[in-house]
Amino acid sequence: MPEMRLHDPRGDRLYLNAEERGAFLAAARWQSARDRTLCETLHWTGCRPSELIEVTPARVDLSVATIAIRSLKKRKDGAGRQKIVFRTVPVPPEFIDTLNTAHGIREAQRSRKKAVAPIWNLSRVRVWQIVKGVMIEAGIPDAPHRSPKGLRHGFGVHATVQGVPLHMLQRWLGHAQLSTTAIYADAVGREEQDIAARMWK
């Protein structure tokens, strides 16, 4: 399995910084309800597109503002069988309200059939295209970080900058190993330098 990193071999970053994440959210608010909530879910949870398209109304907890996401990375239990792992990620209550309004989550949860139907009935490729289009509208430069993966890495860096403990971030991102999550701590120094550079101007 290739080692996860936050910079490519040329040193270009592979994550969205705070300004780019803000611009992405602002651009997403001008999209259709479907595309807006899709982009905001990726932004607020750090999930992968393949995980996003499995989210159903039943996995949204409106009362505590969380979304349960099935980790799609293959894991084995003690007997060597593949196990299913869910992680619960907290999101802002205002976003849960938006999600409920746009997709009728509360109403869908009352129906056994609708509760288990995907909120976004799209392919992973289509999700990638939507996100990329919104990033272009947001003015994010044509660089390696302009991708859903860049958004996921941006979530990790932002959480670390905000002081989220690594073990909690590990759970939110669905990493099997804490050493994988620890790469976000290395990016904080670069992010802090960007902030300091703006302060010195």
Automatic annotation (TrEMBL):
The keyword Iron does not apply. It comes from the Bacteria. InterPro entries: DNA_brk_join_enz, Integrase-like_cat_sf, Integrase_catalytic, Tyrosine_recombinase_XerCD. This is Site-specific integrase. It holds the Pfam family Phage_integrase. Keywords: DNA integration, DNA recombination. It comes from Sagittula salina. Residues 11-198 form the Tyr recombinase domain. GO terms for molecular function: DNA binding. GO terms for biological process: DNA integration; DNA recombination.
